[in-house]
Amino acid sequence: KKIFNSSSLNKKISILLLFIIIIYYRKVMIIVRKNLLRFNGNSYTCAIGKNGVTAEKNEGDGCTPLGEYSLGCIYFRKDKLVLPDVKLPTIAIDKNAGWCDDVASNDYNRPIAFPFKYSAERLFRDDGIYDIVCVINYNSDPVIKGKGSAIFLHIARNDYSGTEGCIALQQNDLIQLLSQINSQTRISIIV
After folding, report:
1. pLDDT score, position 5
2. Could you count the other beta carbons within 10 Å of the beta carbon of residue 32?
3. Are 91 and 74 in contact (CB under 8 A)?
4. What pLDDT sits at residue 45?
5. Which residues have a Cβ under 8 Å from the Cβ of 182 and sit 6 or more positions away?
């Protein structure tokens, strides 16, 4: 007489494993599709590149790069806000902070300090959209000149107008998201 049915047991184990994978995936993967970011059971309105998304990102194209990426450190304006407890490394933005977007520079797609002889974005801004910046590790290892730079999660404008390629959320949503992620979290930008 059979005590258990191995086929039934295998099916139950498979379903259980699938359930565990789904729960794990929801806790480590940020999903961005069109103007919606999902993570850990929450959905947030977001802005993406003003020209949509692309698998063939180029510097200055105004597109958000499709793909799956890890997250880097969080830059923030210590003079304007206090971050909650976050698990990623943080760096205070000072008046000289920038990010190189010039293909002629060996520092392309890397943080820099002004004064700087090449073109670079200033992180210390008056409009507040870079008061919090989380680096999306796009085109970072290795860096390929011309394939896009300065792809961040940052604060959205009130009208969620398109970005130069970044993903932008309202400040409170971004803070909530950053308080939940860690070094294992990845972001997947899909069509």
Report:
1. 64
2. 22
3. yes
4. 98
5. 87, 88
